[in-house]
Design a protein that fits this description.
Length: 323
């Protein structure tokens, strides 16, 4: 197969982004042929959300059929919060109406009704991020990659020995819920002092406000750049907790590289220097010595590229196995 056409979708709480991409064998960056973006409309309920997801796929598929001679869709990859357990979606806090939905079945049925048939791959969005960065981005060429998305929450995805590590249900890498220091703030999941409830953007801001910070609408960037003593104290504590979190990741997986995504990853180099130092302080020295902690390279596109990569990986491993 010279080229394969695949669709990649990133389903977020507010918007669905999709690409139709043309991929060649090997790990060169797929070429985006068409992009579509649509509101998720999570408040309108599961039927509406599924319909919107299917509509994005149909729109990309329709474009391919109309504009590309001999068009054939090789696969559809989808990245979403949560993971499929026994066929049902679990842990999707950003789109609660999808909780418990037999996502693959329901979506396949809708697509078949519209005569769109292609293998469907559904994976956690942090896994998609890690896969995209390991194939096309900052972690290209490394075999053991941990992707850490630090936004309003903290998510993680693992690519170990060059392969996605899914765990039993596809829920491996939920590192946001590692306990860092149980004396810390209550996490969205109900437990206390998790990585997420210490270091995600929302919780950094909460700690800052609780400590008496004065910046209006504080976010990690404003707090990082502030000269206030309280802001400096909160950031210092944040580096320390990042260090503890990364030390655990380093001990558990002995990665080549940890790639950061999400809003917090856009902080300047000094941030990376500080969390890197804190990680080395807390980790086993032999394991921490050569690990790199870096910013992502694909930015917001990592989600759709990672989703597309699920399908690309499948069609090329399939074609080489069957040829
Ligand atoms: Zn938690």
């Amino acid at each position: 197969m010279r080229f394969a056409y695949v669709i990649g979708l990133d389903i977020g709480g507010t918007k669905i982004e999709g690409i139709l991409a043309r991929a060649a064998a090997g790990s060169s960056m797929p070429k985006v042929v068409k992009k579509v973006r649509m509101p998720t409309d999570a408040a309108a309920g599961r039927k509406a959300v599924i319909c919107n997801i299917a509509a994005v796929i149909a729109s990309l598929y329709g474009y391919g059929r109309e504009s590309i001679a001999g068009f054939r869709l090789s696969g559809i990859g989808i990245g979403t919060a949560g993971f499929l357990k026994g066929g049902r979606l679990e842990m999707v806090p950003n789109i609660p109406c999808l909780m418990g939905v037999r996502f693959r079945d329901v979506l396949s049925r809708q697509l078949l009704e519209w005569e769109i048939a292609a293998p469907l791959f559904i994976e956690n969005d942090s896994i998609c991020f890690a896969l995209a960065e390991s194939m096309f981005g900052a972690a290209r060429g490394f075999r053991n990659v941990v992707g850490v998305i630090v936004g309003t929450g903290i998510g993680g995805g693992l690519v170990l020995e060059g392969r996605v590590y899914r765990g039993r249900d596809g829920g491996a890498g939920h590192i946001g819920h590692m306990t860092i220091d149980p004396s810390g703030p209550k996490c969205g999941c109900g437990s206390k002092g998790h990585f997420e409830s210490w270091c995600s953007g929302r919780y950094i801001a909460q700690r800052y406000m609780a400590a008496g910070g004065r910046i209006e609408e504080p976010g990690p960037e404003k707090i990082f750049h502030s000269k206030e003593a309280v802001a400096k104290k909160v950031m210092k504590e944040t580096y320390e907790k990042f260090g503890i979190g990364f030390a655990s990741i380093i001990s558990a997986f002995n990665p080549d590289i940890i790639v950061l995504g999400g809003g917090v990853s856009n902080l300047p180099r000094e941030f990376y220097r500080n969390i890197g130092m804190a990680a080395k302080k807390h980790a086993n020295p032999a394991l921490a010595k050569n690990v790199k902690i870096v910013k992502n390279r694909l930015g917001d596109s990592a989600g759709v590229f990672g989703a597309a990569a699920l399908a690309i990986k499948n069609c090329y491993s399939y074609s080489s196995a069957s040829s």
